[in-house]
Amino acid sequence: MSVTQEYKCPCCGGAIGFDSSIQKMKCPYCDCEFEMEALAAYDNDLNSQQADNMNWNTNVGESWQPGEEEGLRVYVCNSCGGEIVCDENSAATSCPYCDNPVVFKGQFAGDLKPDLVIPFKFDKAAAKAALKKHYEGKRLLPKVFKDQNHIDEIKGVYVPFWLFDATADAHVRFKATKTRTWSDSRYNYTETSYFAVNRSGNVAFANVPVDGSTKMADDMMESIEPFNMNEAVDFQTAYLAGYLADKYDVSAEESINRANQRIKNSAELALEATVHGYTSVQPEYSSVSFYDGYAKYALLPVWILNTNWKGKKYTFAMNGQTGKFVGDLPMDKGIYKKWLWSIAAIASAACFALSWLMWWA
User: Fold this and answer.
1) Residues 66-78: pLDDT tens digits?
2) What residues does 308 pair with on adjacent strands?
3) Residue closest to 310 by CA, chosen among 164, 168, 143
4) CA-CA distance, 97 to 30, in Å (whole number)?
5) How much is the average pLDDT of 228-252?
6) Separation of alpha carbons 72 and 108, rounded Å
7) pLDDT band, very low/low/confident/very high, at 271 (cuts 50, 70, 90)
8) For residues 170 and 201, is the Cβ–Cβ distance under 8 A?
9) Helices (DSSP H) in the chain: which residue ranges?
10) What pLDDT is stored for residue 97 in this prediction?
11) Neighbours of 212 (CB within 10 A)
């Protein structure tokens, strides 16, 4: 009985075999050649690959103590289902996420009390100014977006976040290339050499944020990062005075996949930064293992404005701690057409003038 082992080409994935004329392994599909020792080392590395081990302690936070919830009220949005928490003196008339009316539900009762809160450092006036600045220079912006009434609808909201801490052991194998080009009197040549580059390291992660609200788009919340967690303080209900707070509807357990992906991507980038001297580098395989991983519950400050334009919702957000402002803007097609006609008219006039000058030159 004979036993044969099939090797896959690391470059294209095709089956490769031994070429006796060059005494190397060669791929018949992409013509890559491999030294026997290099291929054996690569095969051993493939066989030793391990899966991710990314486990968390999500027994976070503590329950509200008797009397702590006094003075807090809950409003419910019948449109998006959001539950908005505020102090008893706040007059919540519309949802900060969809602008629809909210109705009073009753006394607040929460499962978990936030561990931390970052107080607002920018007030409503600063948020209005940031929005006006965001509009500057936008000639194709619909007039409704420049309306002062919309600016007045900016709301300060404490958005729920899960903060993940962990120390990670990471191993990444990169596919790297070195390219050499030369030419002679007849041809141009390009030679590409492929390398398997291994990197391992220990990386500590602190306060990796994942927003715990389905009403807030994850990409928007990541866009207003970072928050300076050194300024976070122990939560007290007094910080809610004059602001709204969203109740989390995504649990810590449900946020794990997103936290894992953010940490895995960051670990790969950190190790990739140590790879030098190659034409290209890209991760081919990675394994991340956690220890001492746990999560915390925090409320982070965000100024929010929602508005609609021709059936589409537009949301703007400002980091209430750093002032970073983000949000997409629509384009008024009527103004755009006029702008195009103006450009076309100017271009036509310029061409006519140039032709006239050339004719009489």
Assistant:
1) 666 666 777 777 7
2) 313
3) 143
4) 53
5) 87
6) 6
7) very high
8) yes
9) 36-47, 124-135, 148-151, 218-223, 256-272, 333-360
10) 74
11) 22
